[in-house]
Amino acid sequence: MSSKEVRVGIAGVGSCASSLVQLVEYVKSGSELSKTGIMFDSIGGYKAEDIKFVCSFDVSDTKVGLDLSEAIFAYPNSAKKHVEVPYLNVKVHAGPLADGLDGILSTKINPHRDSELATIDDVTEILKKTKTDVLVCYLPTGAKQAVENYAIAAANANVAFINCTPELVIRNEKLNSLFKEKKIPLLGDDMRSHMGATTLHTALIELLSSRGITVNNTYQLNFGGNMDFFNLSDPSRNLSKQISKKNALYAAGIDASTVAAGPNGYVEYLQDNKVCYLRIEGSSILGSNITMETRLEVEDSPNSAGVIITAVRIAKTALDNKEFGEVIEKTCPFLFKSPVKGMTESEALSAIKDYVASKEVVFND
Ligand SMILES: NC(=O)c1ccc[n+]([C@@H]2O[C@H](COP(=O)([O-])OP(=O)(O)OC[C@H]3O[C@@H](n4cnc5c(N)ncnc54)[C@H](O)[C@@H]3O)[C@@H](O)[C@H]2O)c1
Q: How confident is the model at residue 256, as a pLDDT?
């Protein structure tokens, strides 16, 4: 085992954060099963069990002030409890509220009073004090200002930033240059799921294209019952998600301008289960028709943890190497829906594998 740590901070202690914290606890148990689905055993010398949570931020009055191990199971999170998480001694701090709970979320979540006063500088200070390497931003979609605040705080603290939301950070020129100038890794935007609708959709399109089949029409309908789907049911909050999902389809090589691909409904009883219906209509040999319908059902939040367990170790490796460009180019197309420049599924997989293989080191204890 390496003697080094990946010191991780979390902004937004919602369902995705819950699954990531649970996953790290699970791999620390040493059970063989705990590694199921984790694509890379070691990245830059870091194993999944080298991840250590050192700070966290939220604004909900049900989470601020709790230990991270308690906040991940607090209302209204719906990620299933797969493992027990012991006391972590990581307090959830009040972060700057901004537009974090705007729209429909304000009907379910009350802001903690300290979040109205918290500033970007407070976040920077905590990141520095806790020697955070990587800040993972799990804020709600549509929280543009709040996401930007955490990105600025991370850049000011020389901390790598992972933007799991579809709000523009890596594709925001001003924010991008902030990180680029200091050679601090910035990964984004909008994480993919480990085996989710976007991956399945783009992989099927690539498969059909490889046989010379033309895709004429396609849709991807998604339903779920967690807070992400609740928030996305508000039209004032879901625009960036729709654009992001289409960006992934453009990268797969199809004109997504008329494709319906988005969050399509909040179904409360589904909780953290997500259901996706996919249809693809195409033309094949002699102009013959080919039609395909697929239904995918997954637990949404563990599916996101499968990607971020890779992303945090890539961000730390790039931070160690003071890298900015190469890591973005080679790893973001696989990990995110809206990277600066997209790739097809197979190109993205081979690029991230090359990157990981080229950065491997072994630490001496
Ligand atoms: N598989 C997935 O679940 C998946 C996949 C891709 C992208 N995403 C994106 O990841 C993000 C997180 O998803 P989630 O399911 O964990 O959402 P969630 O609603 O469960 O969690 C969001 C958390 O952010 C907190 N928050 C709101 N404003 C804040 C602020 N200003 N500062 C700190 N915390 C704040 C909320 O109180 C909540 O705890 C969303 O943007 C979502 O679209 C999720």
A: 86
